[in-house]
Amino acid sequence: MVDTQETITSPRSIRRGKPRIGESIAVALTAVATLCIVAPVTAIVWILIARGGRALTWEFLTAMPRDHMTAGGIFPAIMGTVYLVAGTVIIALPVGILSAIYLSEYAKQGPLTRIIRLAIVNLAGVPSIVYGLFGYGVFVLLLKFQVSILSGACTLALLTLPLIITATEESLRTVPASFREASVGLGATRFQTVWRIVLPGALPGILTGAILGVGRAAGETAPILFTAAVFYQKGLPHSLSSPIMALPYHLYIIATQVPDAPQSIQWGTALVLLLLVLFTNLGAIIIRSRLRAKRNW
Fold it and tell me: What angle do CA 272, 274, 275 make, to 5 degrees?
């Protein structure tokens, strides 16, 4: 009994109580911060479903726009976005992963490497309109790709590369150094160690970077404004050198440049764009979860 009272009233137990209060405040702040993120996202999704859900008919998803964008569907804009996202992934994913592998596993660590990493991180904060102007100057005018799928995909790839490189490097660092040492100790070359030991272990984190990059690429308007998107197109693009319609640009056009466009088309287009990004990310998240489940460390 005496021991219990001493335990309760001792200065040591009082000192233990202070961190608990601080911990409670910290937990409350993290909960509030999470709520500040979840609440607006939930509200946006709810409003989009409530106002745009009625527009999601088979004709809206599969028909061509008509009557100056005030009727019909958004099929070419959907396919244009899919083409752009696929082109971006094909270009950015291998280049980003290989660059990160070189910086993390092969490059000599020193001032030059740190400067390159700093430049990559800073590139992630450059406004997308700057990427659009750069893509217009380099891919459209200098390399003569014209306003096309290729120019748009290359520009979006540049936009997403910093995210993919940074996420891949961080993921490669999470693989324990003992794995590399054990692999080399068993006689494997550095390339075999990277290819068969490091890269599979870092794959879930790499997919996370790819998800973030693809999500940003699918929703960007400014980079394709000068390089790929057109106001209207009669049919689907027939080659990489063809311009395209895209959902973000189409939404911008019918919301600001077409005064008679029904609001159901505007909300429906926004909802389709959201669902496209959502399902793309969901598929990548499922693959990432399965890879994490197979990892035994």
Answer: 65
